[in-house]
Amino acid sequence: MDEILVEGSLTKVANRFGNMTSHIVYPESEEEVAMIVKEANKDGQKLSIVSGGTKLGYGGIKSDYDFTLSLKKLTGIVEHTAGDMTVTVKPGTTMQTLQHFLKQYNQMVPLDPAHSSASTIGGVVSANDSGPRRLKYGAARDHVIGMRVVYPDGKVIRTGGKVVKNVAGYDMNKLFIGAMGTLGVITEITLKLRPLPKYSSVVTLRVQDEALHDLKAFLTHIQDSMIEPVSLELLNPKLSKNLFQIEEYHLIIALEDVKKAVLFQEAWIDENKPTEAIMEVINHTEDFWITFNELTPNSQNDFQDTTSGVLKIGTTNMGVFPLLQECDRLNFEGNVEIFVHAGAGHGLSTLMISGLPENVVQSIRSIQTFSEEHGGYGIVKHLPLALRKQVNVWGQLKGPLTLMRGIKQKIDPKNTLNEQRFIGGI
């Protein structure tokens, strides 16, 4: 096991975003992970757990951990059963590496989180992350069928299995997915796979402000139709200008199927779209999604002069329209710039906010309040540590917090792992 004192850029990241320390250890095996965690738990030390390091600005306002355990060296494919369409992989493996491996078998993990070149499967599962294709494929919790996890006392447990038809007992996987590393250190993940689509395209519809109502009616129509979009992402004019050099609303409709079915759906969209909408078809979808995938800032690349924050807003699917109009209002005021892509099929929106620190903080509070007043929620997914201390990163706390705290207390009574990283200070 190597013990490395971090210098230079990593120290800068640690100071700016927290959730890690300048003292990092890099285990190279599950046995080393178990030994490190067991000793730390025995000595009453507090560990932060990181993998790819893109989510350091997500959750938690604690910075005084004793040391950081990095899963960066736990990489590689453990087992791939092409016939059963499953893969077992170590947590430090990047999404890009995993997808490239599976591509040679015409298979994929149907997850498209931001920054796939740097995001690791361990981080994606720990945060239950997802991307625009969530509309069809779901989030990380929908694809994990088994894991190996190191408990704080060093015990290694196995949840689920390595076959898709595994229904015996409780689904323990769900306990650790989205728990932000507060319950155990994931050392192995088994996922169910999907075949690569035979053909894909991205249809864009752009409209000006006055035709937004017609686009809303069309979205209702498309969701009541036979069309099966993979994603329905609605971009505000600010983001559209960044991505398409045209400052109008854009609806991104992703299609995947055999070529004949995709072309049929394109024709249906063209025939039924709003009169004012300008339609374009993108056939080189891989290049498009790579560009789209890198839009949001993260803790590896966010060192601009202006402060950047990322919000995840949950609403009803049609609730994205008042959210977009509220962001337009804030953009018009001119204190911040807000770039939005909103999942009109599932109601999850990503907001990128940039500006002076005090204006970013004020806008985050304002948008969280707006979403909560409309029955939704707002979670801060990326923000420097100093500013996370000024906002409620998880929004208004709802749900079974007593139960969640009880689980944390039972599994990790000494708060050894990622203390205060999760909702409610868990």
Describe the structure.
This protein is an alpha+beta fold and 426 residues long. The protein folds into three domains: 1-196 and 399-426, Uridine Diphospho-n-acetylenolpyruvylglucosamine Reductase, domain 3 (2-Layer Sandwich); 199-293, Alpha-Beta Plaits (2-Layer Sandwich), CATH 3.30.70; 307-388, Alpha-Beta Plaits. The chain contains 14 helices and 19 strands. It has helices at 9-17, 30-43, 95-103, 121-127, 134-137, 173-176, 212-223, 237-244, 259-272, 285-293, 320-333, 357-373, 385-388, 401-411, and strands at residues 2-5, 23-26, 47-50, 67-70, 77-81, 86-89, 107-108, 144-150, 156-160, 185-192, 194-195, 199-207, 231-235, 249-257, 278-282, 307-314, 336-343, 348-355, 377-382. A hairpin with a 5-residue loop joins strand 8 (144-150) and strand 9 (156-160). Helix 11 packs antiparallel against helix 12 (357-373). It starts with a strand and ends in a 15-residue tail after the last helix. Mean pLDDT is 92; it is low at 1-8.
How many beta-strand runs? Answer: 19
Strand order of the largest sheet: 15-12-14-13-17-18-16-19
CATH architecture label name of the largest domain:
2-Layer Sandwich
Helix amount, in percent?
25-40%
Which percent range describes the beta-strand content?
25-35%
Number of domain units: 3
Assembly of the depicted chains: single chain
Say what the CATH topology of the largest domain is: Uridine Diphospho-n-acetylenolpyruvylglucosamine Reductase, domain 3
Number of helices: 14
Extract low-pLDDT stretches: 1-8
